[in-house]
Amino acid sequence: MNETALHEGHRKRQGRHPFPVAVLFLVTGLFLAGCGERIAPGTAPPKRPAISGVSVATIAPVAVDEFFEAAGTVKSSATTAVAGRMMGTVTSLLVKEGDVVEQGQLLLTIDDSDVAQKVRAAEAGHREAIKAREAAGQNRELTAVTEQRYRRMFDEKALTRQEMDQFATRRKLAELEEERLQEIVDRTAAGLSEAKVYHGFTRVISPVRGVVTEKRTEVGSMALPGVPLLTVEDGEAFHAEIAVDEGLAAILRKGTPVLVTIESLDRRIPGRIAEVLPAVDPQSRTFTVKVSLRGAGLRSGLYAKVRIARGKRAILLVPKAAVVDKGQLTGVYAVDGQGVVAYRLVRLGQEFAGDREVLSGLKPQDRIIVQGVERAVDGGVIEPTGKK
Question: What phi, psi does 251 have (nearest 5°)?
């Protein structure tokens, strides 16, 4: 190879990478320059924004009542299934669902033509027995007077002892006959009372004061003994039935105060435990508690939530105004010992009189901004009081 060819090949090899080499030197220079600026001695860190017009408080554990909440159903304390006591056709129905009825009020009637005949027959038999007894009484009085006359005649030796004994026997027989007929009068009187009782079964009355909540018959339907025709509920006394965890069996007693929330009525009603059933359901491990309730608007079937105090526990509370939501995040502005503010995520629990329970994210003696959170800046520093 000649010299000209060697120079030409060298020139071509030098011309293949002129641009990449230049870029490499440029990037390396910028990187070194940047490193030199970041580690340059004497450079001051960026100044934190100052925050003023806020209030800071230290949080501490607070003892609050711990509650057990259970869902239940409102029921009437006295639900009566009104049934007939005899078979017959319903001839009239005097109430409808929703009507308020008084104790002893007539609700419906059943055909009484059959028992009415029995009442009339019993009345006739009783009257006949009374007349027979009255006749026997008059006969007894007559024999008594006659005996006295015969006794005077006997004393005067006008009658023999045998004749006197015969009249004495007639008097005793008259007395016995009157007694027998008196028993018949008593028996017919009892039969008449029984017939009237059966006749009364044709008139179905309300055993309690309350509200008709269910109608199970119509005019013309057949009423059978013991089969409910109407349902009447006490419209004033109610209770909520709830299932309570077996772990509370030792602390719940009759008379324990509770708070019942009726969401459909938007009301909170104070109540007391009226009954604690001792049996525990082996499937759910719960037992039934009945809470007495009173108040307007209550009716069976309403959904109820019952809160039962189960003791005290220590929790951390923060004012609701201190809680800041940022999208899906919930937190508070915490302040460290140097006054630096940091947005700290928290998990909240129940609400207590306007404050929120903190389940996680804070610990006792932490300081947070409780007022003026709109002025807080994450990473800012609290401006000392009095500094402008």
Answer: -110, -15
Are the C-beta atoms of 319 and 348 separated by less than 8 Å? no
Q: In whole angstroms, give the CA distance from residue 229 to residue 215.
A: 6
Question: Span 312-335, mean pLDDT?
Answer: 92
C-beta of residue 206 within 8 angstroms of C-beta of residue 82: yes
Where does 69-77+233-311 sit in CATH, by number?
2.40.30.170
Residue 24: CB atoms within 10 Å? 11
Tokens standing for residue 276: 């604690």
Structure tokens at 70: 């259970």
Model-wide pTM > 0.90: no
Tens digit of each residue's pLDDT (9 = 90 or more) over 205-214: 998 888 898 9
**How many residues appear in the chain?**
388
Residue 244 in tokens: 């309570």
Q: Domain-by-domain residue ranges, the chain?
A: 51-64+315-382, 69-77+233-311, 82-107+206-230, 112-201
The CATH fold of domain 51-64+315-382: 2.40.420
Beta bridge partners of 286: 245, 281
pLDDT tens digits along 327-350: 999 999 999 988 999 999 999 998
